[in-house]
Amino acid sequence: MNIIVCIKRVPDTETRIRVGDDGTSIDPNGVKYVLSPYDEFAVEAALRLKEARGEGEVTVITLGDDASQETLRTALAMGADRAVLLQGEVTADGLATAKGLAAEIRESDPPLVLLGVKAADDDGQQVGPMLATLLGRPCATAVSSFEVTDAGVVCRSEVEGGTRVLELPLPAVVTITKGEYEPRYASLKGIMAAKRKPLEKKEAEMGPARLQVKAMELPKERVAGRIVGEGPDAVPELVRLLREEANVL
Amino acid sequence: MKILAIAEQRDGLLRGVSREVVSAAAGVAIGHEGEVDVLLVGGEGIEAQAAELNGSGAARVLVAAHGALADYHPDGYARILKGVVEAGGYNAVFLPATSQGKDLAPRLAALLDVPLAQDITGIAVVNGALELLRPVYAGKAFTRISVDATPVLATLRPNVFQPQDWQAEVDVESVEITEDPSSWPTRIVSFEATGGDIPDVAEAGVVVAGGRGLKDPENWNVLEDLRSALGNSAGLGASRAVVDAGWRPHGEQVGQTGKTVAPKLYFAVGISGAIQHLAGMRTAGTIVAVNRDADAPIFKVADYGIVGDLFEVVPRLTQEIRTLKGEG
Ligand SMILES: Cc1cc2nc3c(=O)[nH]c(=O)nc-3n(C[C@H](O)[C@H](O)[C@H](O)COP(=O)(O)OP(=O)(O)OC[C@H]3O[C@@H](n4cnc5c(N)ncnc54)[C@H](O)[C@@H]3O)c2cc1C
């Protein structure tokens, strides 16, 4: 079974965010970029499925600039077979991104497309179900584990109050969240092999972005509060402060 | 400005977050010669819940009731919404940023061919156009965004927008349903309820979160006691370390790869305060930290801290709160 995984290059989650000179995006100086953690889960899920079935090919696709090749190579080093770089504008408009991905994926029409539930930069949380809708495919989001059966793909998602289980006929789109798919580390052999795996570059066909970032701001720093005291003897004073000062009890 | 607010129900009962979304919509509409419609989708008899929206600021509640819509169905709900939005000529459509709303809104966006802003925490009207505030980088920054399409589509983060009381009754109208459920490809297999009546960490008004300092999953009774002393609106949260260790379910994880929460009160117990954890809870109203390490980074964001052994401090805290509430 052939699987496509859509991935994104994002700042490492350890990054301390500073606003850049344009006032609308982060200052990229000194920022280390990584494969978005949710996309890592999706790559891992695809590789496990391929290994369990003993057949099929895993293709990773990203929409971005040349720097994103590094991210594709990371996924190839984990074990993906081939990569596609859709050269286009990285935008906050998830629908424009989904259109770019749909234009590419419509041709090969693989039975399963996986994505991370959201990108760890803009936290947009939309490209997967938009892509599915554009392709006219069913979709399950925020899936922590899934299985491919004769009937399709059975997906489990943790939602408020419980676990929802959905069955989607294939072809389908599934977005992955943290759960079953703790990502593997790329082996040295994997890293060497990744250098020789095919990486194709094409222009993205994505249409205009209609959602504009006017400004980026940092949240008000929380002023460090106070240590009320040490040990259980400090509890009565804490309770008094919560009640009388913070008004939350 | 005409706004459609999408209400959310579970098991036939309107969820509290619906009123937040309706009130936020009304807050915008009222100042700009507008009005608010609510769409309530559910099973047979769901119209009885419309009365819960009296005084929320809405003028009309449109009810789409059908046996096949009792539980959330992504394909069915998306198509019903598309029909209602297109017929109504709305300037904006707001949904709750719950699991359901965040799953549904992107589908609707693609069907309507408009962009989407998920999980917004602020709405302003600037020169007649909506400007939305949303957290990015897991809350380490915010962006102000504008949308060059109609309707403006957004999901609103729970616990951020205050429900209002405007004392006006709503008109109820029903939506005709021409959808054929057999044409919806997705099959709902099951819904396994967990946690009984405990609210989800993302929606709870008060969160008691525990980390590796608890030492053993058996020790969670210490936190559960505090949670129950705090009342029905309190939920449980966890650090990634304890979720990865299998001590707590994934659904409780707070932080960059878990949920982002904004309760009015957050207790971080035996949690060091790694940057990825802080990302998920820094917008809480009041943060209380209990940690035996006075240098733990959690104290840098906490409003109140107690340095000490949680196994001594937390039971005392539970007891004091019970006494305060007259239960001790
Ligand atoms: C890509 C990525 C994503 C991540 N996403 C998340 C996320 O979403 N959420 C998240 O939480 N983390 C996340 N992390 C992990 C994060 O970096 C930390 O490892 C994690 O938050 C630590 O959990 P902890 O605070 O429970 O454990 P620790 O850091 O081990 O802290 C335990 C604390 O308990 C205190 N303690 C011990 N015993 C006692 C006692 N008896 N009484 C009082 N205090 C005591 C200690 O002083 C210590 O401060 C992520 C990491 C990465 C790399």
Mean pLDDT of chain A: 96
Major sheet of chain A: 9 strands, mixed
CATH architecture of the largest domain in chain B: 3-Layer(aba) Sandwich
Written as H for each helix and E for each strand, in order along the chain, the element string of chain B is EEEHEEHEHEEEEEEEEHEHEHEEH
**CATH architecture title of chain A:** 3-Layer(aba) Sandwich
Q: Element order, helices and strands of chain A?
A: EEEHEHEHEHEEEEHEEEH
Report the structural category of chain A. Answer: alpha/beta
Oligomeric state of shown chains: heterodimer
Task: Measure the end-to-end span of chain A.
Answer: 56 Å
Beta fraction of chain B = 25-35%
CATH C-level category of chain A? Alpha Beta
Bound heterogens, unique: flavin-adenine dinucleotide
Structural class of chain B: alpha/beta
CATH topology of the largest domain in chain B: Rossmann fold
CATH class category label of the largest domain in chain B: Alpha Beta
Overall tally of domains of chain A: 1
Q: Level of helix content of chain A?
A: 25-40%
Give me the Rg of chain A, rounded: 21 Å
Architecture overview:
The complex is a heterodimer of chains A (249) and B (328). Chain A is of the alpha/beta class and 249 residues long. Helix content of chain A is 29%, strand content 30%. Chain A has six helices and 13 strands. Chain A has a nine-stranded mixed β-sheet, sandwiched between helices. In chain A, strand 7 (139-148) and strand 8 (153-159) form a beta hairpin. In chain A, helix 2 packs across helix 5. Chain B contains seven helices and 18 strands. Classes of the chains: A alpha/beta (249), B alpha/beta (328). Strand 12 (211-217) of chain A pairs antiparallel with strand 10 (141-147) of chain B. The complex binds flavin-adenine dinucleotide (FAD). The site of flavin-adenine dinucleotide has 28 residues of chain B, from helix 5, helix 6, strand 17 and helix 7. Residues 211-213, 239-242, 253-258, 270-272, 274, 276-277, 280, 290-293, 296, 309-311 of chain B line the site of flavin-adenine dinucleotide (FAD).
